[in-house]
Amino acid sequence: MSVRDFFGAMNLARWIIVLGLLGSIGLASNGWRLHERRAALQDELAEAIPARAQNIQFLGQLYSKLQADAEREGFVTQDKPDLYFRGIATDDTVKLGQIEVAPTDPRSFYKGTVDLSYTLRPSVSKDESYPRDRLANFMYLIEQKSGRVRVTRVRLDPAQRLKQWEISDDRWKWEITATSRAKDERTAPK
Question: In whole angstroms, what is the distance from residue 130 CA to residue 95 CA?
């Protein structure tokens, strides 16, 4: 029986059988390929799950710690830094009274960050003077209560002009600049 005789004697039932056989061979090869791919992906997943789970757990703990630090330090947002500085100025160990908080223009030294500086000075009187220990406590608390704010400039002038041999009463006129580094929202990708 030749191929010509075989195809010449084909009826509908035989055509369905031949096409079904060719289709099942194609489906079987595709099924085997997909099975091997699924098995390889499953093996990769089984190897990666412990490391990913540990990474997620670490990042979750880090996020919780950072969130607690931000809530504790009181300088959570850049919206009202004057309240932060004025709160420290009225602390029991500082007692500087009312202060003037003057923000300066933001500057950027590193890509993606901006430095926000605030000039702090007494607001009651420019001639008012304060003991050095209160000013030192004020600067210490500025940095201690917030991990983001640093004192970057201090200007202390003696309250009274004395001769070299005269003893000072240790009272000073002051001006302090504090700087907070933050993420630059203007250049952040959206």
Answer: 9
